[in-house]
Amino acid sequence: MTGRVVVVGVGNPFRRDDGAGLAVIRALRATPPPHVVLAESDGEPGRMLDLWNGDDFVVVADAVHAHPSCPGRLHTLSAPNTAEIAKRPASSHALGLGETFALAAALGRMPREVTVHAVEGYDFGLGRGLSAPVTAALPGLIAKVVESVGRAHADLAGPGPPR
After folding, report:
1. How confident is the model over 10-61, as pLDDT tens digits?
2. E strands of 105-162, at which residues?
3. Distance between alpha carbon 154 and the CA centroid of its chain, in Å?
4. 77: Cβ–Cβ under 8 A, 6 or more apart, which residues?
5. Which terminus in the chain has less CB density within 10 A, N or C?
6. CA 55 to centroid of chain Cα atoms
7. What is the CB neighbour count within 10 angstroms for residue 85?
């Protein structure tokens, strides 16, 4: 298998905290991790499916709603299949990641592994710019994404030579 590592930032920059996933991608573009595909998405399932192949490791950065809410709190979900992700209906988009990965599974387009890193948003109203709690959490969200990229590269490399 010759998979890639694909990082997808999901969001809408005109809905305040919904732009958090896009902010992660823009930050990573300033000093891109080696051998990583960086992509932005509005979260529409069909367009998201075009961003990866079945052999890829996919890392998603997004903003979520949660009840009860704790703006700025980070969440990580890793799932080799869609069942776990589909159980978490908290996306800030009309169609969530669960629906996207369910569609990918139905079409035989699931990536090898998926990790979702999300931040709880505070303000999803019209406008640009992240709220203070999400801005404060952004470095932690970026660090989690970078850590997942490192793990994916290690998995792709396989076991090292015997010592």
Report:
1. 999 999 999 999 999 999 999 998 899 999 999 888 889 999 988 899 999 9
2. 113-120
3. 19
4. 84, 85, 88, 115, 116, 118
5. C
6. 17
7. 23
Amino acid identity, position 151:
R
For residue 128, pLDDT over 70 is answered with yes
- The region, left, alpha or beta by phi > 0 then psi within -120 to 50, assigned to residue 12 is beta
Predicted TM-score (pTM) above 0.90: no
Cα torsion 131, 76, 19, 143 to 10°: value is: 80
Separation in Å, CA 39 to CA 28, 52, 57: 10, 10, 13
Residue type, 101: F
Residue carrying the six token digits 């169609």: 95
CA separation for the pair 7, 124 (Å, rounded): 23
DSSP per-residue codes, 8-70: EEE--TTBGGGGHHHHHHHHHHHSPPTT-EEEEE---HHHHHTT--TT-EEEEEEEE--SS--
3-class DSSP state of 97: helix
